[in-house]
Amino acid sequence: MTVTDVSAPRPGVKRFIGVDFDFGALKNASPRYWAFVSLLGVLLMLGGTAWANALAHGGVVMAMRDNYPWGLWFTNYMYYVGLAAGGLVVYASVHLFGAEQFRPLARIAVLQAGVLVMMALLGIVTDMERPWRAVWMLLTPNPTSPFIYTGSAANLYMIICFVDLWILITGKGGEKLAHRMTLIALPLAIYLHTTTAFVLSMNKSREMWHSAVMVPIFLTSATASGVALLLISAYILRRLGVVELTASMFRSLSTLLATVMIIDLFLLLVEILSVFWPTSAMPGHTVRLALFFNSPYAWAFIPVLVLGIGAFSLLAPRGTRHLPAIQITASSMYVVAVFLKRYSLMAMGFAINPLGQYTPPYLPSAVEIFLALGILALGLLIMTVASKVLPLRMPAHDPHEGHSHGVAEPAAEPALASGVVAP
Amino acid sequence: MSKNKKPARGSTPPAPEKGYTLSRRRFLEGLGGAAGVLAAGTIPAFASTLPNTTESGTESSVAPGGENVLERIIEEDGAINYPGKPVYYADPAGKEKWAMVIDVKACIGCRRCVYACVKENNIGRDSGFTYIQVLEMEPGSVDVESSVLDYGEGGDPDKWYMPVQCMQCAKPTCVYGCPVKATWKEPDGIVVIDYDKCIACRNCMVTCPYFARHFNWTEPSIPANEVNPKVPYKEKAGVVEKCTFCIQRTRNGATTACTEACPVGARKFGDLNDPESDVSILLKTRRVFRFKEELGNEPMIWYVG
After folding, report:
1. Are residues B127 and B179 in the same domain?
2. Which chain B residues in 35-74 lie under 8 Å from chain A, judged by CB atoms?
3. What is the pLDDT of residue B51?
4. N or C: which end of chain A has fewer CB within 10 A?
């Protein structure tokens, strides 16, 4: 295949800002595709209704209260921002470390990162009682607030991801500009996760979060869950025939994933150990972290350990690491584990308030769940439509020639594509 | 927390009383001092890195650095992020430095301060929070982790009670944490919130170690004949609010509603700049402590036992 595959004028292709949007592919899409899109549309409408409800009635329709001032939206903010990391790490490793095997993933990785950060920011906007007041963040920013840093970093990161995608698709500036963009984007990604961790860790009022290890944990959890999600979406997009990827690429991705996973688990165990060790245990901290194990939050946290260690054990043996089933199972386990970790970390920091009063677990209300589902549906919708409309296939520099021949058009039917691509 | 009579210069710090372990803090202060020497290489630098914040602020309680603790706190208790315009429902700040002293030995846990505060400050009757939270403590320790907030009406003579509200900290983490400067410290030390600017991110509630800030999850509702016209009411929907030392009263020479309501006189409110005020005399003559002093927020409410 060549560049002309995606850039040659075909019916339904509209060229806009130098990108060929293949709207014709939507016309040929299968009923299954449209069924999925309409399901997402329904979820999106439910989310919109939930938001209207929240704006009309205020925070009382949420399950958050003074004891739990942040809820599902903040869990999702941390989670989505973290998931976005993986994409960038993979994209950057192509340019910075010459990991050519990841090159076919570059466009998907960057698109996914941008969409995820957009979802994270939408979570904040939909939580605000008066979203228009967000303009004060620009007019009178307070430099001592971590919110300023993580908020601006997320916005900047989202913009950079979409600019990056545009550069990758149009090829403007060539390899040199793509390389330079990584030099901006990678430090910015680290900065984003660090400042997100600061939102929790920079609070001497909340013993459970007040630990410097939060920053590296955020970085590793972000990278591990992000790479895991990228691996899953790469499998999905390969099956749908949007991109063609080699088994060796998946194997490299799995090795990277296993490495980050074990560092992530290690940091978590270090934190738990230093909280409970007799010479370091401080009552305010131990009673809060003990909730991990002796309160209803154990239902959220024990699975973090089980899924995390389980996922690593699946990927650790070299002999079976190349099996798609193993890779997909381990990745899914870790993506779930990191969500539960974010949720329990957030909610448990609040479970005992600074005056020592315990409140039962925070469980999101229907409005919060529909809001989150709506945002998720929007993200998936963008990815679903983009997989048809945008030229996500990396055209050149593919060293694995053998695998890139004879593959269906990007716009091909899923059934046909998977028939050709699936090994 | 400390012996208020002439600790000899250069002697070891007075031993902390039960319930407050300050040895780690001392150690860290020592580290800070050592770092100061390394950084500045001068003896004055060494002295200035040893703020003796645990002293009670008596005239004789002179920190190793030679400064009066109370003077330093009064000095620090100034405007932070002050936008230059006073809150619209109160007079501009004067020269005072407001502070409160609460006598936990006298407090009987009757919660009359809580009720008076709710009425005075237009707190929604079904908003689910109060500015003042009275903690019921077991004898033998100052341990909030085992304290009870929802104890039975009237209080138990075998327990002791510690009312907690916004401490109007000299180093307020809430003001530092607000991303949009919607909350600030007035020149007289009162921490206030601009209800028309708050973006409802609730970060201040997370950063406050005293759980003093509360969010209006629902629109506040008050019976029409009980609304206090001097205090904002409907504009508090969907924003954070907190104790303001009754700014609408105290700036006009009155005392706070909670001080007025206390049947046992456990609360004293006044101006630290006035050496004859109740609070100044109490801080000079009594042994006092501050809640969570180890966090370094420099709260402006002292407790005396």
Report:
1. yes
2. none
3. 47
4. C
Please list every residue in chain B whose beta carbon sits closer than 8 Å to the beta carbon of residue A130. 199-200, 238
Same domain for B42 and B183?
Answer: no
- List CB contacts (< 8 A) between A204 and chain B: 173, 209, 295-296
The encoded tokens of residue A404 equal 């890139």
Backbone angles phi, psi at B164, to 5 degrees: -120, 135
CB A191 within 8 A of CB A154: no
Interchain CB contact of B20 with A (< 8 Å)? no
Task: Say yes or no: B133 contacts chain A, CB-CB below 8 A.
Answer: yes
Contact A149, A199 (CB under 8 A): no
| Chain A CA closest to residue B164 | A355
Minimum distance, in Å, between the CA of residue A185 and any CA atom of chain B = 24
Cβ within 8 Å, pair A354-B209: yes
The parent domain of residue B102 ranges over 98-304
The number of beta carbons lying within 10 Å of the beta carbon of residue A284 is 18
Q: With cut-offs at 50, 70 and 90, classify the pLDDT of residue B305.
A: confident
Min Cα separation B197/chain A (Å): 7
Beta bridge partners of B215: B240
Burial class (CB in 10 A: 0-12, 13-18, 19+), B152: exposed
**Residues 6+ positions from B197 with CB-CB distance below 8 Å:** A133, A136, B180, B181, B182
Tell me which of A19 and B145 has the higher pLDDT.
B145
Put simply, the answer to whether A59 touches B200 (Cβ < 8 Å) is yes
Which pLDDT value is given to residue B54? Answer: 44
Digit-coded pLDDT (tens) for A198-227: 999 999 999 999 999 999 999 999 999 999
The Cα of A242 is separated from the nearest Cα of chain B by a number of Å equal to 40
Taking an 8 Å cut-off on Cβ atoms, the answer to whether A130 and B208 are in contact is: no
pLDDT mean over A162-188? 85
* φ and ψ of B160, to 5 deg: -125, 160
CATH number at residue A52: 1.20.1630.10
pLDDT tens across B71-121, in order?
888 888 989 999 988 888 999 998 999 999 999 999 999 999 999 999 999
> A35-81 pLDDT, tens per residue?
999 999 999 999 999 999 999 998 899 999 999 999 999 999 999 99
The total of structural domains in chain A comes to: 1
Q: Among A336, A346, A348, which Cα is nearest to A308's?
A: A336
Contacts of B129 in chain A (CB under 8 A): 66
> Among B71, B32, B46, B31, which residue's Cα sits nearest to residue B298?
B71
Q: Number of CB pairs < 8 Å for A and B?
A: 129
Residues of B in contact with A148 (CB under 8 A): 179
Q: Pick from A235, A292, A299, A229: which is nearest to A82 by CA?
A: A229
